[in-house]
Amino acid sequence: MSKKSKNGANHRARQRKRFDHTIHPHTRPGTVIVPEGALAPLLHVTAYGPDQIVEKRNATIAQIRELRNKYPVMWIDAVGLGDAALIEEMGELLGLHRLSLEDMATVPQRSKVEDYPHHLFAVTQIPTYNGDLCLEQVSMFAGKGFVLSWREHAGNCFDIVRKRLQVTNGTTRSSGVDYLLYALVDAVIDSYFPVLEQLGEVFDELDDRVEADSEPACIAQMRDLRHDVRQLRRIVWPLRDAIDDLVRSPPEQITQETLIHFRDCHDHAVQIMDTLENYRDAGSDLRDYYATSISNRMNETIKVLTIISTIFMPLSFIAGVYGMNFDAHESGWDMPELRWKYGYPFAMGLMAVVALGQLWFFRRRGWIGKGKQRGKSVDEG
After folding, report:
1. pLDDT at 7 (0 to 100)
2. I want to staple 172 with a disulfide (CB 3.0 to 4.6 A). Which of 82, 164, 232, 347 is the partner?
3. What does the alpha-carbon distance between residue 47 and residue 62 come to, in Å, rounded to a whole number?
4. Paired strand residues for 142
């Protein structure tokens, strides 16, 4: 197995382990159990209003408590789920329901949007693709005066939102918590489009490879691609439905103006879902085409071997006849050709004529080369 194949197999094993998480049946509901190997949390706080904005990196709970209610909107962007005590302390400060904190710490979660008494909770996955599909869970809370986003690992998914916040007269700065939640959800959904574009390029490249030469490695890559598409469908499908439910039955935290923007998010989710459906069909078609190509190549090989065997059958018969041990001196009927001085050249010539005659017949029938029959069928088509 090549080094690339081993790395791909190890990555898929890690992804399976990530999705095969253990449910803790004997714990109290709302218990926060952090994932194994999770990073220590880092807090990036952005508090802003129409006229001013304040940012604090590596913030503490005390600084967040100090900034709260001083600005119309406070965005807490946390990275790392490795501290259960900090998660619970953050939940107490912001009044987050313990079940939502449990869902946030349980990786991975099914994409969903839930309306709790004092806040909204949304959770989904952020994809990246560099030859292997990587998924990172992101949870978002929206309450009175705050938005909390909590990711597994650092990334650039929310950089576009930070840039918008730097624009003094921008829509994001002048809007409320609900619009910031929309902006974060929209950034997550938009992160799927580069992944889909990369997957499309891989499909096209694989299609060309299968058409040019059906390599055995193609089937393994097709299996990995189809697995990645299925995994993305399992994420986007409930996300699309969750946003649709949010649009149809909006909670009190979402204004009518922001609701229009969430409809755009729903349209993007539908577009992503349609693209994944097309990729799934393309993967099935590519697998069928690969199987057909392999079958055709095998049939061509069998045809060549069959033609060779067919040519040698009469030659073997002729050689067998003249190889019989009859004594030509005992009877004039016992192979008189054996006493003929041209007997051997006659036998070889007969074999050559039979072989060439069969080749001419096979070619005329279109079984080899470009015979009359095959050319005629092409012209008629």
Report:
1. 53
2. 164
3. 14
4. 120, 147
Q: Which two three-digit tokens encode residue 129?
A: 């693709």
> Domains, the chain, ranges and CATH?
3-291 (3.30.460.20), 324-380 (no CATH)
Is the distance from CB of 222 to CB of 287 less than 8 angstroms? yes
Whether 351 and 318 have beta carbons less than 8 Å apart is answered as yes
pLDDT digits (tens, 9 = 90+) for 12-58: 555 555 544 555 666 788 889 888 889 999 999 999 999 899 999 99
Out of 92-101, 114-123, 213-222, which region has the weakest mean confidence (pLDDT)?
A: 213-222
291: nearest Cα among 210, 224, 200, 212: 210
Closest C-alpha to 188, from 118, 113, 280:
113
Q: What is the DSSP string of 309-371?
A: HHHHHHHHHHHHHHTS---TTT-TTS-GGGGSTTHHHHHHHHHHHHHHHHHHHHHHHTSSSS-
The tens digit of pLDDT for each residue in 63-79 reads: 999 999 899 999 999 99
| DSSP H or E run through 2 | none
Closest C-alpha among 77, 229, 83 to residue 155? 77
